[in-house]
Amino acid sequence: MSPASRRPRRHSAHRSTPRFPVAPLSLALAAALLGHASIAAAQEQGSDGADGKSKTTELSRVEVTGSNIRRLDVETASPVQVISKQDIENMGARTLLQVLDNLPAARPAQQDSRSLFTGSDGASQANLRGLGAQATLVLLNGRRLSYYGAPAGFQTQFVNIDSIPAAAIERMEVLTDGASAVYGTDAMAGVINVITKRNYQGAEITATTDLSSRIDSYGEHQASITAGFGDLDRDRYNVYGSFNFYRRDAIPLSDFYDKRPNQYYINNPNYIKNLRLGTGSKPGEFNPGTYFAFDPRTGARVQEAAPGCNNVLTGEAAGPRCIWQTWMNNEIDAGAQTERMTGYLNAHFLIGESTEAFAELTYTDIDLRANGGTPRSFSTTTGNPTSWFSRDTGANVNQFLYPFLGPNNEYNHASPELKAMMGGVVGLQYLLQDAGKNYFGQRNTDQSYRAVAGMRGNLGDWNWETAFATAGSHSITYQTINVNLDGFRKAFGPFTVDPGTGRVIISDHPAYKFGEISEANAALLREAYPTFDIQSWTRLHTLDGKIEGPLAQLPAGEMRAAFGFNISRETFYTPGNEDAARGLITQQGGSWFDGKRNTYALFAETVAPLTDKLELDAALRVDKYPNFSANVAPKIGLKYQAMPQLLLRGTYSEGFRAPSLAEAGTGGVFAQLGGFRDELRCNETNAIANLLRQSRRAGDVDLGNSLLNADCSRTVARMTQPNQELKPEKAKIATLGVVFEPLDWLSVSADYWFVYRRNEIAAPDFSKIQDISELRRSPITDSDRAAVAALAAMCADPASGVACPGTLPGYSAGNVASVVGQYKNRGRTLIDGFDIDARSRFSLGEWGGLNIGLAATIANRNRSYLDDESGWFYGDTVGYYNNPRLRATINADWNYQKFTTSVFVNYVGGSKWARERVDEVDNNEQTCTAGYLPVPKPQCDGAPSWWTANLSLNWRPTDKLNVGVTVKNLFDRLPFYDPNSFLGDSPDYASIFGRSYSFTVGYKF
């Protein structure tokens, strides 16, 4: 091995353990990244000064995430990973979310591109260890950021990692250990600290674009400029700014509808057929619609195309109908357009000999838009009414049904035979095109900021720092999706009610004119389907201070300590839309929260060399939240240098998370719940559907396909009530690890981690009956009776070829309309596992250098204790759906002259389809189902293991110019079918985009 390939060592009783990127910090790497004095120079016993005598070089102390104490040896008792800016480029990551998706310790979390209708639309989350965004603390330069304005699901507050200035990132430090003793709440699973450049002169421009080989409309584009002036050492100041512009193109349904895994279309046989491509009327063409009624004798539905229809569909059991094409510019399912601008300013000024003033300003503007595609249709409701809760109507469920046309309605042109069935009353399906194809959809905006001003310096051997920070976010969701009851009444009312059947009837002469497309109609529709907004604000003001320095001189070395305080003022306010609060916006009650609180904290930490090989790190923090007793969070860590090549380390800490203002404040969530499964209705509907699908008559089969699983996942009204009696979550966290460097070019670490969380704050799990305090059902509907009648007609017809049972399936109850639940402290979670990291560096002589790395997280247990009666009811869920045992990355970087070539492989282990052992009764290899749906035969045993590879090449022809290309998903692996996914494609790590290409160019001035 050439001397150039060896890294320098410190001359002391302790040997530095060299580490590489995406591994626990090493002394050499951290010092290089932090821009402090060269460690290489520090390794020499001395250097010749001007007087020719040997002088000792002083080592600079550095700070690392998870500690308030500056130290020479930054290999701490806690495992810390560092990801440099170059590592991020080698991954092919363009956002902070993509970086975390490539870290084995991180788990998939909400991403902004798939966040529509989550309540926190347009934002992304971090999720370490799978404990959720609320258990992962995200910092910027060691200080907290404000929560995103809109909580996820209207209830989980989190930091939007998209608001962090990507262009200014110098590195990320990820502490995969609890850190409540240092940082307070939210740090149970770990800490992600994004660190920006400290000092910058000159200017640099970078542009990047990503394209897909499979989805033509996909594109991610970024441009950034960073510029600064002043040298902190020479000029006593430095000021720089960084601005990042990001855009992700929208993906319309026309570029996505046929790209899902094949099994999706098998399980949804009418999906493409229902798009009516080439058979229905085209967008913008008038479509007179379809009339229908129910036979009073049999209950069967009978329909006919309205006069003047040019697109009649025949062959359905109910009769002919008039059809239209589903517009393919729908972007809500496939991918929204996002534009994001982040600005970051940083300033440092030296005052006197030992004092520095500093300031930061961050501002992010996010704008997400999704076209809603097909215009709304007037479709008389014959099934369950739309149900939703709202703030001002309390426990009363709001409901809405599209009305019928009365016998004297001027637009009732149904045949006399059809009119006669229900006394002249008929239903109508009609396309409301007047508002225009781009009117419906959703938009989300968010403006967030953070300003920090502070000073730091030293008093003798002690270092001090204090700062005031103010941060906030203002989020607005604009939706043009749902009906406004007042506007709808203006267009189609006043309404009457048929006294015999209870059917709602529109005005005989409504203001809206069926049969024409006009601006007058458009104005009415814009009131009937208005754009309404939901606004949310968060604020966080913090004053902190700390002092750090030598406390005592022990026989083995210097004992250092840190002491500090933190005072915070937190507010969260979302008043809700007034119309929605009154129950006037269908399917949208929204959330209503108004909370404020002051919190106070004191902390202390010490690092003490107990012997020349054993070091103690102890920390204690006291946090006081209103309405709770003071929380004491301790942490203790030990590291032992067993031999120059071997370091042993371990930690024990206690963590906590205080209830958020959304969980324990005033207000609540008044909205809907998607995907509610009611086994009773699911089984009854599927029994009817499966018989109809056996018929030789095409109309029966189409009806059966439409009914199949239709009642297995429904949207119901949902109310989640806050709980001011909640207790804070508590956790016990431990790590035990070893760092081993058997050779100068090889470093290996292995850490066991353990988290035991109790008093978990949980929103109601409405899939479990014990979490539902109130449940209401709708009555059996006209559609229900029509389905039963269609089944009876089929079974009575020998031509159907179906051997029907003596007693035909039917309905015993209507669908669930609403559920109510409350936040509560529930049970405990125990998770543990192993992190393994191996890094090597080779010198190839004149062929450059090669770095190879392996990082893996191996989950051991994941158990949930519900209560003393159920115990660990669901068993160990490691190896079950979305909880694979193994996640790993392998990377190789070859540096040769002006080129850097990188290969990055991401691996996710396989898992069962069932979510836990109870779910496995229904979803297993024998049933060959997942989410109660069929899966391809080769995948009966579960979601397959998955890997993808990225290949990148960077070329630096000059010191100023950088050109790079990255091929993501090099082998063009296509996603597997995942029935648990809303879109049917596999999880985020198995991308639908196929092979994609990224091009980067950067220039320094």
Automatic annotation (TrEMBL):
Q: Please name the PROSITE patterns in this protein's record.
A: TONB_DEPENDENT_REC_3
> Gene3D superfamilies per the record?
TonB-dependent receptor, beta-barrel domain, TonB-dependent receptor, plug domain
Q: Where in the cell is it found?
A: Cell outer membrane
Family indicated by similarity = Belongs to the TonB-dependent receptor family.
* Membrane topology of this protein: Multi-pass membrane protein
Lineage of the source organism? Bacteria, Pseudomonadati, Pseudomonadota, Gammaproteobacteria, Lysobacterales
Q: Where is the composition biased (Basic and acidic residues)?
A: 50-61
Domain of life (superkingdom): Bacteria
Which organism does this sequence originate in?
Lysobacter enzymogenes
Instruction: Please give the InterPro entries that the UniProt record associates with this protein.
Output: Beta-barrel_TonB, Beta-barrel_TonB_sf, Plug_dom, Plug_dom_sf, TonB-dep_rcpt-like
Q: What is this protein called?
A: TonB-dependent receptor
> Which key words are in the record?
Cell outer membrane, Membrane, Receptor, Signal, TonB box, Transmembrane, Transmembrane beta strand, Transport
